[in-house]
Design goal:
The complex is a heterotrimer of chains A (282), B (488) and C (298). Chain A has 282 residues and is mainly alpha-helical. Chain A is 75% helix and 0% strand. Chain A has two domains: 49 residues, no CATH class; 206 residues, MetI-like fold. The C terminus of chain A is likely disordered. Chain B has 20 helices and 14 strands. Chain B is globular. The N terminus of chain B is likely disordered. Chain C is flat, with a radius of gyration of 24 Å. With 298 residues, chain C is mainly alpha-helical. Chain C starts with a helix and ends with a helix. Chain C contains 14 helices and no strands. Chains in contact: A-B, A-C, B-C. The interface between B and C is large, with 39 and 36 residues.
Chain lengths: 282, 488, 298
């Protein structure tokens, strides 16, 4: 990080204020969901609406714990398991693949690139039945493995398309210098190229994680047991159950958002700097 | 619930999953590395040779990856069988299929670890209401305790997903042994050929005709009615008294009453109008009341029904938001006092009584145009062919006994499909009693394999007039064109 | 130097880096593509899904779509939705990326927090926007009323035109962080020396942006737009939860309509045909993208 160009003084304050304003506008929907979850049903229907809960009502949160056989902690665990699994597969397969596409002009490269693109074009309605049949034959139907394998198919092509730009932007002389230093192609890739492309790899890992985290269709279709399903399936069930009971629904939404948001905020120093620093030192 | 063991199981699997692929990746890398170095210095011919070697190395690496995937599969399978010790992480072990383990709840996982003692019977159902789930579970537990041969487990599949899961399951031959499904969809699945012919196996002669018809195709019985329900009109008695209205019995009276009941914060009437089967369920009583049928809409009668619903919205006595309200939402609006009258079913009564014990409401017949009319709802049991048919039949015989039917109906707020049970099911002043009377006017949807398409046309037409995107005449004509294309 | 040259002549080695990922995708997604193409030329419905013969009907399913008004609506909707979403989320995302690329005290933390909308499962986002756009209790109606922009509550989700608007808003909200972070990461790959020399040359900010930032960001921009296009074009969860294609089919997209045909109406073949139309459109866009990106690299 280069400290020398840091903006200071009056301009700094103005920019900070503007950024806070942007933050408030963009995160308003979250704030609204949060305060709605703390209101009573009567207050939600009040006109004009209240911008903070006049009577704090925690009943809707208590209901999350009491309701039925749905175990929120377990669904969180499932979601994490599935997302981490999908991320690992995606990163392991996508990083070398994007390097290969970016740095080697082999035959069939365009076709491969196109097919990676095509693989993410399919709407879910097309994928569900054939994937289901495959997972059944692999004996992974109704296990989290099925969701992991399916979710990785979202992360892989995406990561390849993003990462290939990173590898392409790394100057050849860096690689060549590595060879002169005695690296072979593989060690050069691992020791030199991956560290340089770290922001890109980080982005891909995060994207893959979040695509898996947000997935609903795969988790619902390939996992039948309620206790193995991810949190998104829980939200979906909850919506079916409580329809427009907004205090309950928003409480559920808040509860599902908080862990991810917390992890992110604690780790953001690493995530954001991982993504945006470490530029190519040309 | 045995949460602890479940937790350990997933953590165990997690670590297992994280380490193995890494191991595989590292091995793969080393392989590449060792072939790469000499390769750089070799001549052309040898390079080709090396290339071949590299292909072999790569294939080996891929085979390893495949082995890994299989390993994961096996571990999770054994994990599902409550493998809490963590010794199940033997990658590459032979994949063992244990269907019983897959269907096992956490709390009886102990039994599932030793399969073969009792034949598993799986049930899929879609009731999200907790009371319904608990009641069904109770019957299942009683059944499991009553005999040794079969072990029944029930699985909740959300309603929005139920058709999809059955369709996919049919393609992949991965179905439960019993499905408890929405009666209008029954005929479609019969046509799919996944249901067992139950003719002569159950005595349904005392059942309401409509319920039996919904699971009969070509004179053969493909299911057993679980229970019946129908729609009727709920009204908030306090609001009605305050406005000085009497209970409406005709459409004109309903319109006047709804107008009188509508205030700034209250709309007179609500009925679920979502554009799917649930909406159709709520629309057809109005359609049929005029004398129109589900297949003949483009006539004076059909148009009159559409015009009436449209005028409810135009007069402001019914909210347009109804097109986003499920029946549960409509009920919530009613018990919150935002709506004075609603069209809804008897299964809401247990919830209403517990959530709004002080609310003063009553139920009456849906007001009529030409004749009283309602729609028959409810679920049927169906037995999947190719599954554990004997076990399924055994359980159904148990569950359709009078005692169990009474228990289930009571907890569900349903009316028994069995007339003899239904007639004595409720006290004379019970809020359910009007539904028993309404049941005499209730007709089934279909049965028709293409019912989902007909239903779509009907709910679309009503949604068009409610949102004002089409005049009743045009909506009726369009729906008729679609239906003619299906039914001919 | 000769050694290195020889080394790079063997470009074909690169295929081994790509192959594992390629095979993975081929196994899990290739089969569905082929199955779907076959299915779309057959006549599969509830009657012959499991047993019975599946007749080939050639282009009948596709011909049927031509006369299907819901199909036409959903095709038009998908295009309109995709273009509008892309334009707004890209422009706003780009602007924010540039803004937060400046080194003021809050830049990094706030840019980090701004990613939160995009970490929320789409299902939850749809839920929140349903609440914001609700007719009577929705805060958007309240704000518009307070600003005297409207006199009467707008029935956002129950009126055909405005329901689409609500969907676009929700999607743009998700898309802004997506665009912002990818462009931010792209900006970091631009060597700072270039900016320094440009300012020495006396170029103003607009010139620097046009001459340095845009051209160097081109690969990133292309990827962001193409990925945005694909993900927006096949949107499913958001529409399914917010409107389910309603009111009166006015917000059906190709993906939701295909799903409805396949899994709610048992018209499997027709559903496949709709999905294939979606696929073909994306494929055309994809080919243009590949052409554009690989030509300039050579």
């Amino acid at each position: 990080m280069d400290e020398e160009k840091r903006i200071s003084g009056k301009k700094n304050i103005v920019l900070c204020i503007v950024s806070v304003l942007i933050l408030c506008i963009l995160l308003f929907p979250l704030y609204w969901a949060f305060i709605t979850s703390l209101k009573t049903e009567q207050e939600i229907f009040q006109n004009p609406p209240t911008f903070y809960p006049h009577v704090v009502n925690s009943k809707s949160y208590a209901a999350q714990v009491e309701t039925g056989d749905f175990n929120m902690f377990r669904s969180f665990g499932n979601s994490f398991l599935i997302s981490i699994g999908a991320t690992i597969i995606a990163v392991i397969l996508a990083v070398p693949a994007s390097y290969g596409i970016a740095k080697y002009k082999f035959k069939g490269r365009k076709i491969m690139l196109l097919s990676f693109l095509v693989t993410q074009m399919l709407p879910v309605s097309v994928l569900l039945t054939p994937m289901f049949i495959m997972f059944k034959n692999l004996h992974v139907y109704n296990t989290w493995v099925a969701a992991v394998l399916a979710d990785a198919t979202i992360g892989i092509p995406f990561s390849i398309l993003i990462l290939k730009n990173y590898f392409a932007s790394i100057p050849k002389d860096l690689e060549e210098a590595a060879y002169l230093d005695g690296c072979n192609r593989f060690t050069a890739f691992v020791r030199i190229l991956i560290p340089i492309a770290r922001p890109g790899v980080m982005v891909c890992a995060i994207f893959s994680f979040l695509y898996a985290w947000g997935d609903l269709a795969y988790g619902m279709t390939f996992i039948l047991d309620q206790e193995k399903r991810p949190i998104t399936a829980g939200i979906f069930n909850f919506m079916g159950q409580y329809g427009t009971k907004w205090s309950y629904l928003t409480a559920f939404a808040v509860v599902t958002i908080i862990p991810v948001a917390l992890i992110f905020i604690f780790m953001q120093k690493y995530i954001v700097s991982g993504m945006t620093s470490g530029a190519v030192k040309g | 619930m045995d949460i602890l063991s479940e937790k350990t199981f997933s953590l165990d699997n997690l670590s297992f999953f994280i380490f193995l692929p890494f191991r595989g990746a590292v091995n793969g890398c080393m392989m590449n590395a060792s072939t790469d170095k000499p390769y750089m210095r070799k001549g052309l011919k040898e390079r080709v040779k090396m290339k071949k070697k590299k292909i072999t190395a790569l294939l080996t690496a891929m085979a390893m990856t495949a082995g890994l995937l299989a390993g994961c599969g096996s571990s999770s399978d054994s994990g599902a069988a409550a493998d809490t010790t963590g010794t199940g992480s033997d990658a590459g072990a032979e994949v063992q299929e244990s269907p019983a383990a897959e269907t096992t709840e956490a709390d009886n996982s102990e039994q599932a670890a030793h399969t073969g003692e009792a034949d598993a019977v799986t049930i899929w159902y879609y009731w999200e209401t907790e009371g319904h789930q608990v009641a069904l579970d109770q019957v299942i537990q009683d059944y499991n305790a009553s005999q040794e041969q079969y072990e029944v487990t029930a699985k909740y599949v959300p309603f929005a997903d139920f058709k999809k899961q059955l369709s996919i399951g049919a393609s992949a031959d991965e179905l439960p042994d019993i499905a408890i499904l929405d009666s209008p969809d029954h005929a479609s699945y019969v046509e799919m050929g996944i249901f067992e012919d139950l003719t002569g196996k159950f005595d349904v002669s005392n059942y309401y005709d409509g319920t039996v018809n919904s699971c009969t195709v070509d004179g053969k019985l493909y299911g057993v009615p679980f229970g019946a329900n129908c729609l009727a009109l709920y009204y908030n008695e306090d609001m009605l008294n305050e406005a000085g209205c009497s209970v409406p019995t005709t459409w004109d009276e309903l319109m006047d009453t709804a107008k009188a009941l509508t205030t700034d914060s209250v709309t007179g009437l609500a009925l679920c109008s979502v554009q799917n089967e649930e909406g159709t369920f709520n629309f057809v009583p109005w359609l049929w009341s005029t004398g129109a049928t589900s297949y003949e809409i483009n006539n004076d009668n059909g148009v009159r029904a559409l015009t009436f619903i449209q005028s409810l919205v135009n007069e402001g006595v019914m909210s347009k938001e109804c097109i986003n309200w499920t029946q549960g939402d409509v009920m919530n609006q009613f018990i919150s006092g935002n709506v004075a009258m609603m069209e809804n079913g008897p299964w809401q009564i247990p919830t209403m009584q517990s959530e709004a014990p002080d609310l003063n409401w009553k139920v009456t017949l849906i007001p009529k145009d030409a004749e009283y009319s309602s729609v028959l709802g409810g679920e049927n049991y169906a037995v999947i062919n190719g599954g554990n048919v004997d076990g399924a039949l055994d359980f159904l015989t148990y569950a359709t006994s009078e005692e169990k039917v009474k228990y289930l109906m009571d907890k569900f707020g349903y009316i028994s499909a069995d007339k003899t049970i239904a007639e004595n099911q409720f006290e004379a002043d019970s809020p359910y009693q009007p539904f028993v009377e309404e049941l005499n006017y209730a007709m089934p949807r279909g049965p028709l394999a293409e019912w989902p398409s007909v239903s779509d046309a009907i709910s679309l037409a009503f949604n068009q007039v409610i949102t004002g995107t089409a005049a009743p005449e045009d909506a009726a004509a369009e729906a008729q064109a679609t239906i003619d294309g299906i039914v001919k | 130097m000769g050694k290195i040259k020889k080394f790079f002549r063997y470009d074909n080695v690169g295929i081994f880096f790509v192959l594992p990922a390629f095979l993975y995708m081929l196994i899990f997604v290739g089969y569905p593509i082929i199955r779907n193409i076959i299915l779309s030329f057959q006549d599969v419905n509830a009657g012959n899904l499991v047993r019975g013969t599946k007749n080939f009907v050639m282009f009948n399913n596709y011909l049927e779509l031509i006369g299907d008004s819901v199909f036409k609506t959903s095709l038009f909707n998908t295009l309109r939705y995709t273009v509008l979403c892309l334009v707004f989320q890209f422009v706003i995302g780009f602007a924010l990326a540039l803004f937060f690329n400046r080194k003021f005290a809050f830049a990094k933390p706030i840019r980090g927090i701004l990613l939160v909308p995009w970490m929320i499962p789409v299902t939850v986002t749809a839920l929140m926007f349903k609440l914001l756009f609700a007719t009577d209790i929705g805060v958007i109606n309240f704000i518009l009323r307070s600003l005297h922009l409207i006199n009467k509550n707008v029935e956002w989700l129950t009126t055909p035109g405005t329901a689409m608007f609500a969907l676009i808003c929700a999607n743009v909200w998700i898309g802004i962080p997506f665009n912002m972070i990818l462009i931010s990461t792209g900006l970091t790959t631009i060597p700072k020396e270039l900016y320094e020399s440009s300012s020495i040359d006396g170029a103003n900010k607009v010139q620097t942006f046009m001459r340095i930032t845009l051209p160097l960001l081109k690969p990133t921009i292309e990827s962001v737009l193409i990925l945005g296009f694909i993900y927006t074009f096949k949107v499913y969860d958001l529409v399914y939860v917010m409107t389910s294609g309603g009111p009166v089919n006015s917000t059906h997209m190709l993906s939701t309509y295909s799903y409805k045909l396949s899994f709610e109406m048992f018209k499997y073949s027709k559903g496949s045909a709709v999905a294939n139309v979606l696929l073909v459109i994306l494929l055309i866009v994809g080919v243009f993208y590949i052409k554009a990106t690989t030509e300039e690299e050579v």
